[in-house]
Write a structure and sequence with these properties.
Number of helices: 11
Distance between the termini: 16 Å
Largest sheet: 10 strands, antiparallel
Radius of gyration: 21 Å
C-alpha cells in the first residue's frame, strides 16, 4: 500500500472538531451541522437549476454570455460570509502575478493556506475508496458555511464556502450531500457541475475536480470552483484534434490532445448539447476510476470546454521520485495548479520562480508519452471508440456515433474498460 504524509487543506472551520455543536444553531437537533435532522429544516436559500435548457447554440454564437442571478447570488452570499469573518485569511490581499514567459503561468503567494492544518496518513494508491463516516465529511460543516441549495430534495445538492480559499468566490459544489457519496465521478453529478458552469454564465468562473490519488483531500463527492479574471495558461495551449464524435440530434463532441504544455491532457468541446458533452467526459472519468488512474478535471468556458488530466505526481512522491527541492515548495499539483494557477506558500518561491520552474513542477505531474497513449486509448474506448482515430490534413479518417453505442452506459464502461496490470 502506498501512503504519503499529507497536510490536507482545511475546507471547513469544523474540520478539526469531533462534534459540531453550537448554542446558536438555527434548527434541527441542536447541532450546527448538515445532518439529516438539520438540513431539511434549515433556512438555506434555494436556487433551482434550469436543467431543461441543454442547448448551447446561443452561447456558441460568439456573443458574450450575460451574467445570471446565480452569479449574483453566489458572490453576494460569499461576500456575506467574508464580512462575517468565516474565512481563515483574506484571500483578496494575497499577491498574484503572471510569471514572465511564453505561457503566462499565474503565481499566487498564499502564506496562510498552509497554517493550522493537521497531518494525516492519506492513501494514494486507490482512486476508488469507500466513504467513511468517521472521517471528516461535508455533513459536519457548519450551516453558516453553506450558501444555498440547488434543489429541495431530502438530500439536496448544495454550495458551500471553502474557508481556505484560493481565489475570490471559492466555493464547493457538493452533490446530494446527505447521500454521503465518495469522491468518484458519476453521470448525474457531473452533469450538475456543467449546469452550474453554464448557469453562472461567466467565463471567469471555472470548476475543478480532483480524484483520490490526485490531491483530493476529502473522500466526499465535491467539485471546487472560483473566479479568476485571467485566462488559465492551459486554456491558451494549442491542441490537436483526435476525433469528432457524433452525439444525439446531429451534435458533436470534439476530443483533442494538448500540445506544447507540461502536462499531457485531453480536451473535450461541444457546440450544442451539454448533455452529450457531459456523458462523454463522465464516461471517460468512470473508465479512469475503474482502472485506478488518478486524474484532475477543469471545466471552463461556461461548461463548453473540459480538460481531463490523468496524472501520477502523488505516486511519484510516495515512491521518492520527486526532488526534495520541489517537495519543499509544498505545491500539491491538483486541477488549479495543473491548469497554470500555482499557489505558492513561500515568498522566496513567489519572488524567484521563473517560467522554467513552473514548467518543471507541472512536468512531474504528467504521464510518460507511452502511458498517456494507453490512457488515451482507454478514454476513446469509454466514449464508444474501439481504436484511436486520427485527423490528418484536416480530414477525419473514421468516426463513430454516441447514439449507436451502448458502451457509453456507466455499467457497460465498467465491463468493457478493464485493464490488466
Amino acid at each position: 500500500m502506498l501512503t504519503i504524509k499529507r497536510v490536507p487543506t482545511v475546507v471547513s472551520n469544523y474540520q478539526d472538531q469531533e462534534e459540531t455543536t453550537s448554542e446558536n444553531s438555527e434548527a434541527g437537533c441542536g447541532s450546527n451541522c448538515l445532518g439529516n435532522c438539520s438540513l431539511p429544516v434549515s433556512k438555506l436559500p434555494l436556487y433551482q437549476i434550469t436543467k431543461d435548457k441543454v442547448d448551447l447554440t446561443e452561447e456558441a454564437s460568439g456573443e458574450e454570455p450575460r451574467m445570471s442571478f446565480l452569479h449574483d447570488l453566489l458572490l453576494g452570499q460569499w461576500e456575506d460570509r467574508m464580512n462575517r469573518g468565516l474565512f481563515r485569511y483574506d484571500v483578496t490581499s494575497c499577491e498574484t502575478k503572471i510569471i514572465p514567459g511564453e505561457y503566462g503561468f499565474i503565481a499566487q503567494l498564499n502564506e496562510g493556506r498552509h497554517l493550522k492544518k493537521r497531518a494525516t496518513e492519506f492513501r494514494i494508491d486507490q482512486v476508488l475508496q469507500s466513504f467513511d463516516e468517521n472521517k471528516f465529511n461535508f455533513t459536519k460543516i457548519g450551516q453558516e458555511e453553506m450558501l444555498f441549495r440547488l434543489d429541495d430534495s431530502k438530500s439536496p445538492s448544495v454550495v458551500a464556502i471553502n474557508v481556505s480559499p484560493i481565489e475570490y468566490g471559492h466555493v464547493l459544489l457538493i452533490p446530494r450531500v446527505l447521500d454521503c457519496l465518495p469522491q468518484r465521478i458519476d453521470h448525474e453529478s457531473f452533469l450538475l457541475a456543467l449546469y452550474v458552469a453554464k448557469e453562472a454564465a461567466d467565463p471567469f468562473f471555472r470548476l475543478g475536480y480532483n480524484s483520490l490519488g490526485a490531491f483530493a483531500t476529502i473522500n466526499h463527492l465535491h467539485f471546487q470552483a472560483y473566479y479568476l479574471p485571467l485566462p488559465f495558461p492551459v486554456e491558451k495551449a494549442p491542441t490537436s484534434r483526435i476525433v469528432t464524435v457524433k452525439g444525439h440530434q446531429d451534435t458533436q463532441v470534439i476530443i483533442s490532445q494538448l500540445l506544447n504544455y507540461p502536462v499531457r491532457g485531453l480536451v473535450f468541446e461541444v457546440g450544442k448539447s451539454l448533455r452529450d458533452l457531459s456523458h462523454a467526459v463522465a464516461s471517460s472519468c468512470i473508465c479512469l476510476q475503474n482502472n485506478n488512474i488518478p486524474f484532475n478535471v477543469l471545466i471552463s468556458d461556461c461548461g463548453r470546454r473540459i480538460i481531463l488530466f490523468p496524472q501520477c505526481y502523488a505516486e511519484k512522491q510516495a515512491l521518492g521520485e520527486v526532488s526534495q527541492e520541489l517537495l519543499d515548495t509544498q505545491v500539491n499539483p491538483a486541477a488549479w495548479e495543473i491548469s497554470g494557477h500555482i499557489v505558492l506558500k513561500r515568498r522566496k518561491d513567489f519572488e524567484e520562480a521563473p517560467e522554467e520552474y513552473a514548467w518543471r513542477v507541472l512536468s512531474e505531474v504528467s504521464l510518460s508519452e507511452e502511458r498517456f497513449q494507453e490512457v488515451k486509448a482507454y478514454v476513446l474506448e469509454a466514449v464508444g471508440l474501439q481504436k484511436p482515430i486520427l485527423e490528418e490534413n484536416g480530414i477525419i479518417q473514421e468516426e463513430d456515433s454516441l447514439d449507436k453505442l451502448p458502451a457509453l452506459e456507466a455499467q457497460r464502461v465498467v465491463q468493457n474498460c478493464t485493464v490488466q496490470h
